[in-house]
Amino acid sequence: MYLNVAEGNNVSFSVNMAGSQTFKPGTKYVNVSLTGHYAKNIQCDPHFTGWRRLLEDSTQHLSVETQDKPLVFEPFGVGYYRPLASCQGKADVGDRFSVDIHALEDITMSLGAGMAEQFTVLEIITMSVTILRTWIWDNYIITWSITTAVFLILFILDVYLSKRCNICSNFYNLPNSIVVFGFTLNIIHYVVRFVYIHLDMYSESEREGDVWLGVSLHIFAPLVVLILALWLNGIEFPKKYPLCDVVTYAELVLLAYTSALLWQGFFIAPLYYLTKVAAKFTVLQDCLKNLCNSFRYTPIPN
Fold first, then answer.
1. Which of 20, 58, 249, 285 is deepest in the core (most CB within 10 A)?
2. Gyration radius (Cα) of the chain, Å
3. pTM here?
4. Domain ranges of the chain
């Protein structure tokens, strides 16, 4: 891997194992080195456990963790990883630095470069797929598949049985069914994921990190938004043109939220709100015609 770093800027990279992989204390899993102008002069931050930055041409051989230290929690991807080697330091001279990694054991690794996480709009919208790929890397595909299958079966049964229940109107109502499905799919996946990664079957190593940040972001927040979305669906508002309708703006906010932050909802809720908002704006042409007619003696024909 190559890192282009300007003089005075930080270079960072990290080499990690998935938290679910078996770790044998005393085993050296990789060799990692950094080559470039004055690379030996780079002082790696000893407290850095994630993304790192590095810098006469020289090569710095980085120390590789061989002790069973606590796994590091990543609240956005929701999982644990084990740092093997990492470095962050200021480059005295700008250069194209080379990071060489040689695996000594049969392991699955991830390589991170840079400090800031930046995503395009497309990457944010497709985050459900990205998170799933990360979980597959962490040996989670079987549990994920079982969770999805059980959820689908229970949801279908719930919808079917609700037709026989006089007070169960949420699932008998199609808009509510779609909203509930999209949100609860996300919530259930994260509930199971949080439980799973704290079991001994995931890893017997200790864990560290702010788990409650991930719980708040992926479970509590969607639950609150789901309640607000159902409340919005249940209120009868006067019919207005979309630009004058507060419900339209609320649905645009829900469209943005479900697209950007419902990371295991798999596009269900965003497509629902996109379709709903788009349908409202089909009457915008009639709105403009009526506005023009108010200033004309001869109405524009419909």
1. 20
2. 26
3. 0.78
4. 2-118, 122-286
